[in-house]
Amino acid sequence: MKFGMIFGQQRENKMNYSQELEAALNAMRTITDTSDMHVLASEYNKHITLLGKRNGAGIIKGDTIQWEYGGLVKTGKVLKVNPKTIEVVNVGATPFGATRTKLDKSMIVGKVAA
Questions:
Q1: What is the pTM for the complete model shown?
Q2: For the chain, which domains are there?
C-alpha cells in the first residue's frame, strides 16, 4: 500500500485553516534564519502559557470541562488541577480502571453547564 493512500484513494492533505492561521504559517515559512525561529518559538510558548492561564482560570476539582484535541471536542470531569496542566477522566467513568488524561490548560474550550 502506497503511503498516503487509504483504501485506494489519495488522502487529502489540505486542512481547513482560518485566514489568520494561513497568514501566520505563510509568514513562518519565509523565515530562513534559526535565530529568528528561536524567537518565534519563544513567543509561541509565551502565548500558549497565556492561553492556558486564561482558559484554566476558575476551573476547580470536580468541574466538567470540554477540551479540543485533534479536531475533536471531548468532555471530562476534573480530577486534579496543576499550574500548567489539568487531569480529567471521561464523564460517567467508574473509579476503577478509569483512564486519566493529562491536558495542557491551553486545550480547554470551556466549562460544561451543570
A1: 0.68
A2: 1-114 (2.30.30.140)
